[in-house]
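About this split. The held-out portion is used to measure sequence recovery: a designer receives only the structure tokens and must propose an amino acid at every position. Recovery is the fraction of positions where the proposal matches the reference. Here is one held-out target exactly as it appears in the evaluation file.
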């Protein structure tokens, strides 16, 4: 009958509308998924570029410190009364052990102490501080605090101490390095890792 045909047509139209709506929903879901992928990709790119920028900044900072250190050494090479020495920790078998150091001492004027591989010592923790002390005589408790060594070349595992107090340098004839808690100590209490005697006569130029 006419009424049945009309009802059938309405059902077909509703089904067609439902199918069309479902297609639009599927398209929206696909677009949303693609947008999410693009956002994730962009976030990854931003993170990657940010890391590259941080690495570049770190490299530039390290190069600046390295150039500053080299400039210090070049300036020292022209100084009078300069004493230079390699400093090693020697084991009971007579063999050199890590760490080792290099001293540039302008008599009673300035001291630059480079130390390498300090963190290779057994038992050294990430929270440890490497602290330098000036000494005159056998009493470690009377040692002069020269300051905390800081790393100026991570690639070469190099630490440095710069000290240029002439009055203080006149009162010491040796320098040594100890492992102290984070932030340093008021007196040397930790393990001694390097020792350099400064009482030798200048050997450069």
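Reference sequence for scoring:
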């Amino acid at each position: 009958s006419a009424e049945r045909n009309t009802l059938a047509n309405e059902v077909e139209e509703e089904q067609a509308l439902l199918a069309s709506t479902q297609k639009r929903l599927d398209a929206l879901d696909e677009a949303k998924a693609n947008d999410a992928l693009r956002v994730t990709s962009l976030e990854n790119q931003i993170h990657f570029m940010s890391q590259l920028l941080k690495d570049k900044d770190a490299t530039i900072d390290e190069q600046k410190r390295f150039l500053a250190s080299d400039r210090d050494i070049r300036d020292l090479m022209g100084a009078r009364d300069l004493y230079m020495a390699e400093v090693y920790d020697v084991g009971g078998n007579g063999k050199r052990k890590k760490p080792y150091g290099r001293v540039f001492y302008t008599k009673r004027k300035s001291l630059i102490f480079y130390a390498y591989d300090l963190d290779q010592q057994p038992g050294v923790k990430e929270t440890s501080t490497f602290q330098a002390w000036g000494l005159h005589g056998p009493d470690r408790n009377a040692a002069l605090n020269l300051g905390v060594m800081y790393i100026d070349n991570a690639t070469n595992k190099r630490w440095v101490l710069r000290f240029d107090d002439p009055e203080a340098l006149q009162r010491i004839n040796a320098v040594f390095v100890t492992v102290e808690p984070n932030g340093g100590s008021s007196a040397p209490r930790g393990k001694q890792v390097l020792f350099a005697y400064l009482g030798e006569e200048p050997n450069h130029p």
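Annotator remark: Residues 1-77 form one domain.
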